[in-house]
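About this split. The held-out portion is used to measure sequence recovery: a designer receives only the structure tokens and must propose an amino acid at every position. Recovery is the fraction of positions where the proposal matches the reference. Here is one held-out target exactly as it appears in the evaluation file.
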């Protein structure tokens, strides 16, 4: 297949593009290489893809309507994995317009490209952040998610609604994946594992929000990518039993599906830090702080649907995953 992967120089996008190339697919990788975080890291990821047979890089902004239309018309991808977005809950409080430009306008351009060019299946990144003020655990795709607590979350919920509309109106098969705290080698510098590792190695204190009373469904990148690729291969179908009198939020009478993609095993933040301290071989100095605006105390993914439909089975223990990240970090940065 020819697969368009947006956000190909990003964390999940890089690993997804690599996995698709490894199995023989052709990959068109799109990225704008913006400076939300270290562009050098993005370029280093990209360099490992550009030397591969079957990979083509296209630099463009999702919100550039003409560039996106030209790319779709020229490359005619069979399937699309949309992983490009303005990420980050806290940054959405500082620069909300960036989220509207990339996550709403940009996503519309992706949908239009799929619609007009016969794309067989769109897989797009949503987020566990859509659960917002929900407290019923584990989070289920069958739950209502109408109470986001950040603009980032609101844009991701909007993506789900937009994709469903295109599935309904134009028969575009679309699958949304709600990612739960992805970590691992080549990870994002704005995520806790990267920040903690950098500061501990530098002998600096780490900021521990909500006084450490956090739990996250940390999910290792290899497990995530396996789930993404399996989802690409499993084209969304209509649910023949869908009932408008008792609507199921995760399916539709249109070819549309929503799934959680997580580890189904929340880890307490203090246990997470303990695993990191063990991997580094040094205890962290901790600066305990209150809960940040837009943040939630706990995430916990119900992955039953994804397991049933594609055989998704994450199996990387947290200590193993953290150790692999620390080994990569030390090798990459020479610490």
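Reference sequence for scoring:
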């Amino acid at each position: 297949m020819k697969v368009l992967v947006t956000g190909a120089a990003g964390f999940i996008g890089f690993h997804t593009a690599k996995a698709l190339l490894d199995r023989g697919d052709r990959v068109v990788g799109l990225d704008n290489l913006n400076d939300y975080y270290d562009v050098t890291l993005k370029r280093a990821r990209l360099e490992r893809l550009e030397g591969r047979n079957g990979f083509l890089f296209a630099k463009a902004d999702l919100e550039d309507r003409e560039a996106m239309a030209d790319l779709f018309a020229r490359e005619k991808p069979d399937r699309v994995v949309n992983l490009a977005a303005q990420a980050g809950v806290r940054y959405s409080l500082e620069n909300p317009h960036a989220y509207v430009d990339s996550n709403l306008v940009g996503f519309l351009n992706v949908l239009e490209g799929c619609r007009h060019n016969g794309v067989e299946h769109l897989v797009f990144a949503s987020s566990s952040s859509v659960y917002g003020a929900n407290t019923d655990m584990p989070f289920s795709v069958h739950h209502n998610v109408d109470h986001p607590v950040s603009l980032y979350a609101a844009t991701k919920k909007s993506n789900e609604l937009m994709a469903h509309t295109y599935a309904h109106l134009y028969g575009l098969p679309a699958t949304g994946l709600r990612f739960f705290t992805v970590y691992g080698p080549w990870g994002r510098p704005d995520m806790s594992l990267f920040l903690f590792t950098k500061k501990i190695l530098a002998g600096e204190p780490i900021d521990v929000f909500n006084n450490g009373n956090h739990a996250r469904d940390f999910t290792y990148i290899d497990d995530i990518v396996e789930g993404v690729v399996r989802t690409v291969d499993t084209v969304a179908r209509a649910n023949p039993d869908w009932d408008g009198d008792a609507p199921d939020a995760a399916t539709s009478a249109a070819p549309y599906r929503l799934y959680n993609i997580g580890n189904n095993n929340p880890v307490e933040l203090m246990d997470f830090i303990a695993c990191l301290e063990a991997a580094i071989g040094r205890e962290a100095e901790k600066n305990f702080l209150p809960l940040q605006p837009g943040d939630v105390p706990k995430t916990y993914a119900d992955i039953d649907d994804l397991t049933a439909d594609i055989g998704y089975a994450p199996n990387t223990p947290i200590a193993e995953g953290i150790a692999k990240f620390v080994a990569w970090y030390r090798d990459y940065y020479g610490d």
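Annotator remark: The two ends are 40 Å apart (CA to CA).
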